[in-house]
Fold this protein.
Amino acid sequence: MQPVGKVALITGGKRIGLVVAAELAAHGADVALSYSRSRAEAELGAERIKSAGRRSAVFQADVSQPASCEALVHGVVKSFGRLDILIHMASVYTERSFDVLSVADWDASMNVDLRAAFLCARAAVPHMRKQGGGRIINFSDWLARSGRPRYRGFLTYYVAKAGVIGLTEALALELAGDNILVNAIAPGPIIPPPNLTPEEERGVEQATPLGRWGGESEIAKAVLALIDSDFVTGVTLRVDGGRHLK
């Protein structure tokens, strides 16, 4: 599938999502962005899309709720007339030790990282069927793709992201007959989290075989590759600079 003339929806259009949105626009797609609280970032992304000569719109949505996902997709289709590509990037990434982990913490992670991926796909699929196919790209994590929880304090995040891999595979099988290809991306060290110290940043670089952080554009490249392919589905693609090898 070529992005030209297609409509994409990105949930969680912040930081890396803004670069993905800009690259999709540069390749001819119209792009809608949803946000939970980061309206300013979503509007910045929309301006970048429009500066590339493509249409854009931003929508506030609680993607953990079925009605909100339905309203989001309905708003995109009403604004653009179609929906071809769903990229679910919304995520909750919070450190909690097991001893203080609450049921609310568990639900917060599962509802956004895993449940929302299902809800957004459920809302989007009928519209993709009308177009004769589509692409769904979920986001997991390099640790979940590697099958080993390396860091303590991220139990709910790891379990949810492992669930995203299972959801992606099952959806790929369910939707193959509709020509809707479903894949996932498992990022590794792409950009440093805001709270990382310079020493910690260097530590990640040293633990990564390629010796550096990847940068947002590497995720955008992976997204474009999965959209372009007409014969790859049910795959979770690691983009981690070989981090899983150490």
In short: The chain has one domain: 7-245. The first strand starts at residue 7 and ends at 11. The helical segments are 16-26, 39-51, 66-80, 103-130, 142-146, 155-175, 198-207, 216-228. The two ends are 35 Å apart (CA to CA).
